[in-house]
Design goal:
10 helices, two-stranded antiparallel ribbon, rod-shaped, alpha/beta, Arc Repressor Mutant, subunit A, 21% strand
Length: 326
């Protein structure tokens, strides 16, 4: 059965007239009559009956009309969804989850570029840790999650599509005026006597592993509740911290960074559900990958510990990263 004929039938039922349906559908009345007659032959029952003022559905016709309306509505939704994928737009809200550093570092710019093309899309941003965000993708709460493989890593899950976006090189956050401020990439052993602050187990594990490879022990004296608190303790000179390179452009006032020689890295990934992906998800992933590339620090700096301009956050930038955890 062709859906065009179904549309003709429900139009006849709605208007109660073959001639009125023909006029609305830009058909001849005889063409409409033939379509209804053909549908009745296929189903083996009369679907409409004539009365003094036109036609009305029979009992069988009323049952078929009810199911035809539902089927045509679903078909229309399917066509709209395919066109949304083609055009990279959607009326469906887009829910994005990201770790705090990625929510501050690359997600805003990627979404801004997406909205330049699909400006009518409403979106929301939910922060969380990578494992939490993975579970929310599986549960259907998130359309896209931007996560990392930092300890304890990402699980393999057949229900989730994973796209690699890039490697994020970790840097050291220092208070402005720190003796290391303005140096080139430093060796971890030069920071052996420093007091460190961390805000989650994954970041602390990464720091300890990197220090151990350098033959030193990182002294984590302070623990912050979240990334905002971590950077506040750095800004006030209480400690230094290992932070993602993507945060270089989103640091609070009073905090600068210095690169590490042979820095630890973390892989950054986008997760999407395999079932019912959002029409704008693929376009957002492309923009996330494009936004990620410029924030990677140089891979071959000149000489370790060489003085260079201090990469401090601009004094006009107020506030920090408004996220709950690191």
């Amino acid at each position: 059965m062709e859906l065009t004929v179904w549309r003709t039938f429900v139009t006849v039922c709605r208007l109660g007239s073959l001639s009125a349906a023909a006029a609305e559908l830009n058909h001849t009345q005889s063409a409409v009559s033939r379509q209804i007659a053909g549908l009745e032959r296929q189903l083996g029952v009369p679907l409409v009956e004539r009365h003094a003022r036109g036609v009305r559905p029979t009992a069988a016709g009323e049952v078929f009309r009810h199911h035809a309306l539902a089927t045509l509505s679903e078909a229309d939704r399917a066509v709209r969804a395919v066109r949304d994928v083609r055009d990279g737009v959607s009326s469906r809200p887009l829910t994005v989850g990201a770790t705090p550093s990625l929510a501050a570092g690359i997600v805003p710019e990627a979404v801004r570029k997406l909205l330049e093309r699909a400006g009518s899309v409403r979106w929301s941003l939910l922060p969380g840790l990578s494992a939490q965000l993975h579970h929310r993708v599986v549960a259907g709460d998130l359309d896209v999650a931007v996560v990392t493989d930092a300890p304890p890593g990402l699980p393999h899950d057949s229900r989730v599509r994973r796209r690699f976006l890039g490697l994020d090189e970790m840097v050291v956050a220092l208070p402005v005026g720190h003796p290391m401020c303005g140096r080139g990439p430093v060796r971890m052993r030069t920071l052996a006597e420093e007091s460190w602050v961390e805000d989650n187990d994954g970041s602390a594990t990464l720091l300890r592993q990197h220090a151990a490879r350098a033959g030193v022990t990182a002294r984590i004296d302070l623990t912050a509740a979240d990334l905002v608190g971590k950077l506040a303790l750095v800004a006030t000179g209480h400690a230094i911290a290992l932070v993602p390179g993507v945060l270089r452009g989103a640091l609070r006032t009073g905090v600068t960074t210095v690169a590490l020689l042979d820095p630890p890295t973390r892989g950054v990934y986008a997760l999407t559900p395999r079932r019912d992906p959002h029409p704008c998800a693929a376009a957002l992933l492309d923009r996330l990958a494009a936004a990620f590339a410029p924030v990677r620090p140089p891979h071959a700096p000149a000489r370790p510990d060489e003085k260079e301009p201090c990469a401090a956050a601009p004094a006009s930038h107020h506030g920090g990263v408004e996220t709950p955890r690191g």
